[in-house]
Amino acid sequence: MKLFLLITSLALTTNFYTLQFTDVDGSTVNMSSYEGKKILLVNIATNSPKVNQLAGLQQLHQTYGDSVTIIAFPSNSFGHEPRANAEIKQFCQNNYGATFKIASKNPVTGASIQPIYNWLAQINENGVMNGVTGGDFQKFLISKEGALIGVFSPSVQPTDSLIVNALINQ
Description:
By secondary structure, the protein is α/β, with parallel strands linked by helices. The protein has a single domain (4-169), classed as Glutaredoxin (3-Layer(aba) Sandwich), CATH 3.40.30. The chain has helices at residues 53-64, 85-96, 115-121, 123-126, 161-169; strands at residues 4-6, 20-22, 28-30, 38-44, 68-74, 101-102, 139-142, 148-152. The strands form 2 sheets. A 6-stranded mixed sheet has the order 1-8-7-4-5-6. Strands 2-3 form a two-stranded antiparallel sheet. β7 (139-142) and β8 form a beta hairpin. The longest helix is centred in the middle third of the chain and has 12 residues, at 53-64. It is globular, with a radius of gyration of 14 Å. The protein starts with a strand and ends with a helix.
């Protein structure tokens, strides 16, 4: 079953572009640097049964990278990411040719949740919905204006027409 939720409300309580994360190399990345581009946020895990979706993320990055930023957020929240940051980066690059942005490994659920995923999970932060991450490779689409506009099930492949159409048309 494919799950896709298109979100139309734009009432925000916390500006998405004020958020930041640490990338896999330890540098701070401000979301404001992506303002004006759509952003596809994906929690990844290198031991997940869905790990082959990394190839699809790279394909999206190569095809739509001028208008869409892909950011992978490694997480062991679902028990499939035993690797450390350097190993995650090497795995993604060596096995899937990953050139999209990779964040440092952090939880995407629970008490120590990564701040961007906290924003996604809390209606009082994003103004739209409680978007709790349900598994490895769940995808969240952010508009050019910094609003949450789409959520895709972990089972939806990155190159599925649902995602591609949302990237092109939303």
